[in-house]
From TrEMBL:
Cofactor: [4Fe-4S] cluster
Gene, per the UniProt record: nth
CDD domains reported for this sequence: ENDO3c
EC number assigned by the record: 4.2.99.18
UniProt-recorded name of the protein: Endonuclease III
Function per UniProt: DNA repair enzyme that has both DNA N-glycosylase activity and AP-lyase activity. The DNA N-glycosylase activity releases various damaged pyrimidines from DNA by cleaving the N-glycosidic bond, leaving an AP (apurinic/apyrimidinic) site. The AP-lyase activity cleaves the phosphodiester bond 3' to the AP site by a beta-elimination, leaving a 3'-terminal unsaturated sugar and a product with a terminal 5'-phosphate.
Amino acid sequence: MLFDVNDKKSLKRRDNILKALDEKYGKEYICYLNHKNAWELLVATILSAQCTDKRVNIITKDLFKKYDTMEKFAGADISDLEIDIKQAGFYHNKAKNIKNAAIMLLEKYNGEIPSDLKELTSLPGVGRKTANVIRGNIFNEPSIVVDTHVKRISGKLGFTGEKDPVKIEYDLMKVLPKDHWILWNIHIITLGRSICFARNPDCDNCFLGNFCPSKGK
């Protein structure tokens, strides 16, 4: 049962879902990747591709001590950087992208992280997901981040029938009010980690059970 913006029942179900999520998890903006500034969040988000936030936070604890400025990342020996981030997986590409992103930011943006989506996605290793993490958490720009939890659970709730993350993002922009764009990712990550597991969702104990067309499936 896909969401229909022109259907009153669909709108009511959406509003009930958002209300239940707000009541359960609150409306505070939470970022699960440890960082002290926009650059550190950018690095952490690049590392988080195909890697858990928990592991990324373990890696960056020492990484941000060794490379405590953007300039140090830009001047890093690529082999050393690969070793430092190896546990994140895909470390050859990630190391190259992080180093080149630092160089580009220093040369083109004077070391400042841009807020514009097009400028962010022009950086090496930065796609829409990473850009939206930065826009939402650093600049408070309404943005929808489509990670594995959002992709899977948004589909289960009938908010999208798409599989491509960009198409899912656009679907959710139509379904969700702007004041819940950032919250959606925060809430759905929490739901996916605690109740709506990928392999064995705990539908019997899910507080969204009355509103989920995929309950028990």
